[in-house]
Amino acid sequence: MEELLKQLFELMEKNRQKQKIVIIETSSHLYHDKIFSTLKKYYNQLDISIWPSTEYGNESHKQLETGIIIPNQETLMSMIKEANLILILSFSRDLLVKGALCMSDTSSSYALQVAIMQQKLIIAVDSGINLKLEHWKLQDLDKNEAYNQSLNLFREKLVDFGVQFTTIFEFSDIFTQWITRYPSFKPSDGESCLKQCTKTLTYQDVIGKHEITLTRNTKLTELAQDYVRDNKIVVKNRE
To answer: What is the span of the domain harbouring residue 204?
Structure first.
């Protein structure tokens, strides 16, 4: 009986699929170490591919000590199609603007457009565009409110396209919930978990409303918060 159980466990482990993740690298490298430490916890459960094959992608590959570099666009297309999750480690302002305007003239913006058009699950860490982080405040790069609002508008457009943003401080908890809650690694389950954890209401979702209901997993974007406050919209909370 012991030998039979051993064989069954070996068979289960052999046939268990790993979670396929495509990492889109950008020119922004803020807080990469914190993200890498989270991913390294789940090496045995992840099948990681990194794009593009530039100095950014190669540097991430070296620090992660795992995964493969995607060599060309043809391979990228198939990798994204098969992926359970598209992960952007630190969203840059260049990618933010190009993504919102549907541009694909760089390696990273091309990959983002492919993922959006295929309606893949896309999680982006907002470190490169979140000017409220201490990194930007220490350099006095958070002063221009008109500029900040412009970034928020581009961000909300990408949220409308299906990109889900998270802060560097929330990333570890969200990723851990996703990878541990669904050990069978079903893409639909993983998607449901992340959407549940990071549901976001944008300015477009609240405009014209007199009342909105929020759950504990729902967040308002900054523009949505301003609209709710300025127009005295009734906010109800539901578990």
So the answer is: 200-239
